[in-house]
Amino acid sequence: MGEIYARRALGLEKPRIALLSNGEEEGKGNQTIRDAAEMLQALDINFVGNVEPKDIMWGNADVVVADGFIGNIFAKTFEASGTYISNIIRDELRRNVLTMLGALLSQSAFKRVRKRVDT
Fold it and tell me: Within 10 Å of residue 7's Cβ, how many Cβ atoms?
């Protein structure tokens, strides 16, 4: 399903499909992950193997497959991390007049960052 979405909605000819695991090496993960990797390898898709959460951030896969439990934990952690970092930056930029001026001058850069993160 993710592969079809990536092709049709994102226009990717051959999307890179990966499996979220605790290590990039083949054979990593619990039995469910190892079984899923075996099934994904048997499909006619561009399966690139296991990825760790850090690999998702760097764009090493177009579609990441995860079980519902781990995928949900990853999504919530990623969202909370973004909110946490945004709050820290906002608080620091409001610290004094000089940092507020710096924030005003950096507004276009912050908009570009937000656009990149939201895609």
Answer: 15
